[in-house]
Amino acid sequence: MREIKRSFNPRDAMPRNVVVPLALPALGWEEISEATESLMSTKVTMGDKVRKFEELFASYLHVRHAVMFNSGSSANLVAMTLARLVMSKKQGRSFETITPAVTWATTVFPICNVGGTPVLVDVRPDTYCVDPTRIKEAITKKTEAIVPVHLMGNVCKMTEIMNLADARNLIVIEDCCEAHGAKLGERMVGTFGDMGTFSFFWSHHITTIEGGMIVTDNEELAELARSVRVFGWIRDLKAKKKIARKYPHIDERFLFLYPGYNLRPTEVQGAFGIHQIKRLERLIEIRRRNADYWIGRLSKYSQHLLLPREEPNTRHVWFGFPITVRPGAPFSRSQLTSFLEERGIQTRPVMAGNVAEQPAMNLLKYRKVGSLGGSRLIMRNSFFIGNHQGVGKEERDYVVSCFERFMKHHR
Fold first, then answer.
1. Which terminus of the chain is more exposed, N or C, with fewer CB under 10 A?
2. From 3.30.70.20, 3.40.640.10, 3.40.50.1240, 3.10.20.30, which CATH number describes the 29-278 domain?
3. Annotation marks residue 204 as catalytic
4. pLDDT tens for residues 219-266?
């Protein structure tokens, strides 16, 4: 392992012409050593290392329970499954779940997977987060749940959203897949609703290669999540002996209590997680420093660029650095992104853009509320650049210099 410690550098895998990559995993020799130990032991599927990471992540968020999955998308699927099959007050009836139109595809698709109808509402272009007034307008007698998305690491207005939910007894599932460590006041996102979901994909704040998590303070939901993630069997449940006594003719190792999936993580993922979580706070501070610098240096172009902002009394954790080209600017998004890409600054659209415009939605039943003007703007005019521990002073200054060159040409 000493050779790994001495020579490993994730940037070595990047093409030479990339100066600012969209993502750069913060990996060290510890993750590789831990994962190698799991492989050599042959204990490679969900076990002690997954449980250890679950404990560490729950402790970090100050929640009672964390249940790991093979991906953040799977965490969303199980959260919606629990909302529909266990928590729903409208069993057997059509139900609606309100969620923002700008998000990742697998925030929306699981709603349909469990028989629900997504209701897409608009977001605010300056924060990329859902507008609570649009949620209020979208609530009907069929509404069963709200899925706010802390997009790009920014923080939704959870106090207002929870007030709406509590007044109508609605389920709240926070999608925090891009918001590890984001806060409202001193409280972590993911801890306001009934459940919170997280992703540990390769490009996220911390990574387990693939991987996801459901967090909750509700012990019943946590137990059900542990069962549903592995076929619906009882092996991982605290009450498995008590349950088994009700079905003495069934081998308790193969007793299936709920309809479930196979979404369990591996020990290699757990091995990454127990070391990644130790780095998270340092990584957040780097991202925040970069974002503050760019906002300060690029604000002189605010006539043509809508820069992101951090909500008061929150901690934005900056999944990336998003920018919107204002309508009427003397250049297009594609002109700006092409200029940046040619100079080694990678760019990409903001998630799936306006999900309502994706062709997959033509195959699904959904409803949208209002014109989704903010979402349409983001779909056409927004993009983001990488913001991570691989961006230091030299890279920050280089980004600014490229913007200055572009703006000078288009002035």
1. C
2. 3.40.640.10
3. yes
4. 999 999 999 999 999 999 999 999 999 999 999 999 999 999 999 999
